Amino acid sequence: MSARAAEIAARTCPGCGSPMERRAYARRPQGQVELDLCFDCQAIWFDAFESPQLAPGGVIELFRTIESQAQRDARPIGAVLRCVTCRTPLNLTHDVERGNRFVYYRCGQGHGRFTAFLQFLREKEFVRSLTPTEFERLRATVTQVRCSSCGGPVDITRDAQCPYCRAPIAILDAGAVQRTLAQLDSAEQARNKVNPVAVMDALLEGQRASTRIDQADARARGRTLSAPVDLVHEALSMLLDY
Asked: Residue 201 sits in which domain range?
């Protein structure tokens, strides 16, 4: 086994030290990108330049992988994260993609970066923070949501961000989904054809109907409705079911 192959095979998660799982996704214009994922921390290690090499179909498959872990709580990452290659501490980095803010941990030597699932979705513009108008509309529908970053409950009658990890409340961006799907080849489009805007409308309408039913049931039983809703993962689940 070459030194490079041995180094890749022995990779451990910068966040928790557990062995990472290596999975292959479609590369542009052809071939595959092999990514290292930690399902305990719900994060991805990208070698240098791997993220922009993902083909549209590879991005969709990575979304499927992320959604498959939606019900798992992410393990808190350590205070000091180290590069999987050189073991030097990673630097917390704030970035912006077309107005959408996201963070990741990068190696100062250029070996790669460690990105949480939610932050990857924000980077690719599939997920964004709620606007003030959307936040007020949401308040009229539900009282509590589940943080898509750490899984903690957020009482939106009091908070506009998670009280545990301070992440802002986020939603799936239907327009970004539509733009990415448009880049797929004709076979992928025929197999995955879906109107993301209609999915979001169906999610919100279904949530309103479910909330009305649950509220009526709660009143009949003399209790208070408080089940949290995860807007990001529910929308992704509906999208990927098509």
From this structure: 125-242
Q: What whole-number distance in Å separates Cα of residue 154 and Cα of residue 64? A: 25
Torsion of CA 193, 99, 41, 156, to 10 degrees: -90
pTM of structure: 0.64
Question: What pLDDT shows up at residue 214?
Answer: 61
Q: Determine what percent of the chain is predicted with pLDDT higher than 70.
A: 59
DSSP state of 73: P
String of DSSP letters for 173-209? -HHHHHHHHHTS-HHHHHHH---HHHHHHHHHHHHHH
Same domain, 105 and 135: no
Q: 137 with 74, same domain? A: no
Whether residue 5 is found in the same domain as residue 19:
yes
